[in-house]
Amino acid sequence: GDVQQEAKQRCLELGAMDFIAKPLSEEQVIPLYERLGLHYAQRTSMELNSAQSQEELSSLAKFREIANIALGKGAAIMADHLH
Questions:
Q1: 15, pLDDT greater than 80
Q2: Quick one: pLDDT at residue 4?
Q3: Backbone angle region of 8, left / alpha / beta, with phi > 0 → left and psi within -120 to 50 → alpha
Q4: Which of 11, 31, 59, 68 suits a disulfide with 16, CB 3.0-4.6 Å?
Q5: How many domains does the chain have?
Q6: Which domain covers residue 53, as residue numbers?
Q7: Which GO terms describe its biological process (predicted)?
Q8: How far apart are alpha carbons 56 and 76 in whole angstroms?
């Protein structure tokens, strides 16, 4: 079967509020935030450039992806043990 669909179903059955598939697009983020009752503040490219250099953004993006993968694997392991 579809591993991601099975993981999604297990997460939702275990109480997750939603399941976020990657890659995540801005078109998916805004409705997700609305469903969760959160405010999504969009940053302009000018704000991003003044706040951080492109290299820092690249490093941050890499870190986020690694963290997301680790969290996903951890959630799958927990779901297997709790199931």
A1: yes
A2: 78
A3: alpha
A4: 11
A5: 1
A6: 3-82
A7: phosphorelay signal transduction system
A8: 30
